[in-house]
Amino acid sequence: MLPLSELDEKSSSTSLPEFVQRMTQWRHMDFEYSLWQMLQLCVNPTRVYRTTLYHSRTKHAWARDDPAFVVVVLYLLLITAVAWSLAFGDGSFISFVKLFAYVVLVDFVGIGAALATLCWWLANTYLHQFPERGDEWAATSRREMVEWRYAFDVHCNSFLPMSLLLHVGQYLLLPVLLREGVLAIILSNTLYALAFSIYHYLTFLGYSELPFLTRVESFVYPIGVVLLAYVLSLLCMMNVTSFVTRIYFG
């Protein structure tokens, strides 16, 4: 078995380009397993991260080596972009392309990469622990750090349930959520608060599975900010669905 330092060095130099290249190799992607993971993320997310621990022991890496999960998420965003474009766009192909490009490049990849980078930096800088079990063991543990691609995997896992709530569930409930009145405001804002809270909770689960991290409960602290924003939005009688649709579609 290669030392962890050599494994990390090898992974960091080849993993990302190889991962992107594999996105074009459809026959080599395990879509059945990815769909199983997506289902478990909605009903039993801890089970998904238990398989991640097994993956780390067999592949010597925490990050996925199969891009099928990301491909399925992109396909989901494609379908929802078509639906939202037909509902609020001008019906042109250009408006659909703009919406799909924005959702993928900004919402999913751009913001996701920024959040993954922030969590990756926080985990490796402030949450990494070095247990005292001898000089040799401690030196080895210092080499095991959070991979950036694993941080992005955590974002992808957390993004899926949030996307199902906001892109699919919200779309189906639009006739109710866009009505005038207090009930529509409560339902809309509760949906957004639930979606963002689930995102941060799943992020916490992703980092809590790493045995070399401590104080991972820090990743659930943003839920407090979400709840505060939820209360303020209700006090201001602000319908978040109406606000967001105006931002995206004018």
* Whole-number mean pLDDT: 86
Query: What ranges have pLDDT less than 50 throughout 5 or more consecutive residues?
Result: 1-14, 134-142
Query: Radius of gyration, rounded?
Result: 20 Å
Give helix and strand order, one letter per element, not per position. HHHHHHHHHHH
Q: What is the number of E strands?
A: 0
Q: What overall form do the CA principal axes indicate? A: globular
How far apart lie the N and C ends? Answer: 57 Å
Note the main sheet.
none
Put simply, the count of helices is 11
Helix-strand makeup class: mainly alpha
Strand residue percentage: under 5%
Quaternary: single chain
Describe this entry's structure for a reader.
- Helix content is 76%, strand content 0%.
- By secondary structure, the chain is mainly alpha-helical.
- The longest helix is centred in the middle third of the chain and has 34 residues, at 93-126.
- The protein is globular.
- The model is unreliable at 1-14 and 134-142 (pLDDT under 50).
Task: Give a quick set of tags describing it.
single chain; 250 residues; mainly alpha
